[in-house]
């Protein structure tokens, strides 16, 4: 697996021009060259640059970093409280690329034990998924690598949900699901956790729920809210048409939609549909119920 200098720029936040300067002056990056003299960077060099960029961001001069051994880099980052979360995100990315599921899970387990699931999701998992998205866009991970990591995260969220006290309230009932052929479930599971933690009843249909099945449950259970968290929308699907159809099944039921699909959506939505453009909006709404 090889990366171009532009891809390193996207993943590290370090400008390509700066990366070239560092290569000429220091020793920590040694890209190979193609037959046409184009730089090519390995996974190990990506990991190195992520670490170097983080050390430099938190005040260590590049000349000093170049003199240090990798073990000293690790120690220096552990001394920087502000840098630790970003460092752990970079570790998660490296473990995912290496398909080292044991190390990946160890990072999550320790952080959850120390700070709980909510802080883990906000401080680690969101940043990790953002970098995974860049790797997808540049075709540098395959589905197997992502699935291994996503499965571990999914297990952690489900375990945290199971460990919460049972909810005995009947209303306001939240019905959670993803549209048919949509399988990116982590965000929706996290919403389930937030709702249950706040003592709100949830009926969870999960991923890839056919609209006819959703309509059946709506008519029988009469939830107060539908909740969808959409990291993507199924290929060929029309989001606008889907939400309009969903809104007409039981027009008195409120429909809440969050996720990256709605973050830039500007069109008018039906009266019973609310688009939540950020995690903060979603949490504020949950607290207000």
From TrEMBL:
It comes from Paraflavisolibacter caeni. PANTHER family: MERR-FAMILY TRANSCRIPTIONAL REGULATOR, REDOX-CYCLING DRUG-SENSING TRANSCRIPTIONAL ACTIVATOR SOXR. The keyword Chloroplast does not apply. SMART domains: HTH_MERR. Residues 2-71 form the HTH merR-type domain. Signal peptide: none annotated. Keywords: DNA-binding, Repressor, Transcription, Transcription regulation. GO terms for molecular function: cobalamin binding; DNA binding; DNA-binding transcription factor activity; metal ion binding. This is MerR family transcriptional regulator. It comes from the Bacteria. The keyword Hydrolase does not apply. InterPro entries: Cbl-bd_cap, Cobalamin-bd_sf, DNA-bd_dom_put_sf, MerR-type_HTH_dom, MerR_fam, Meth_synthase_dom.
């Amino acid at each position: 697996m090889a990366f171009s200098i532009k891809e390193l720029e996207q993943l590290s936040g370090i400008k390509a021009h700066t990366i070239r300067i560092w290569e000429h002056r220091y020793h920590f990056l040694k890209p190979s060259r193609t037959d046409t003299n184009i730089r090519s960077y390995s996974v190990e060099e990506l990991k190195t640059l992520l670490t170097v960029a983080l050390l430099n961001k938190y005040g260590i001069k590049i000349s000093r970093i170049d003199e240090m051994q990798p073990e000293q880099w690790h120690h220096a980052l552990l001394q920087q409280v502000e840098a630790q979360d970003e460092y752990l995100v970079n570790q998660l990315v490296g473990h995912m690329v290496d398909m080292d599921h044991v190390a990946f899970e160890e990072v999550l387990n320790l952080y959850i034990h120390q700070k709980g699931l909510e802080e883990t999701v906000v401080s680690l998992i969101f940043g990790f998924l953002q970098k995974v998205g860049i790797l997808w866009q540049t075709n540098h991970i395959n589905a197997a690598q992502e699935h291994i990591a996503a499965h571990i995260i999914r297990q952690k969220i489900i375990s945290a949900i199971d460990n919460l006290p049972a909810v005995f309230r009947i209303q306001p009932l939240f019905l959670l699901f993803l549209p048919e052929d949509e399988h990116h479930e982590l965000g929706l599971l996290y919403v389930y956790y937030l709702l249950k933690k706040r003592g709100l009843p949830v009926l969870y249909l999960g991923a890839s729920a056919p609209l006819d099945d959703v309509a059946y449950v709506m008519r029988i259970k009469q939830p107060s809210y539908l909740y969808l968290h959409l990291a993507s929308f199924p290929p060929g699907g029309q989001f606008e048409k889907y939400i309009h159809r969903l809104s007409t099944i039981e027009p008195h039921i409120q429909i809440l939609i969050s996720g990256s699909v709605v973050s830039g959506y500007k069109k008018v939505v039906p009266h019973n549909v609310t688009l939540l453009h950020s995690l903060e909006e979603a949490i504020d709404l949950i607290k207000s119920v």
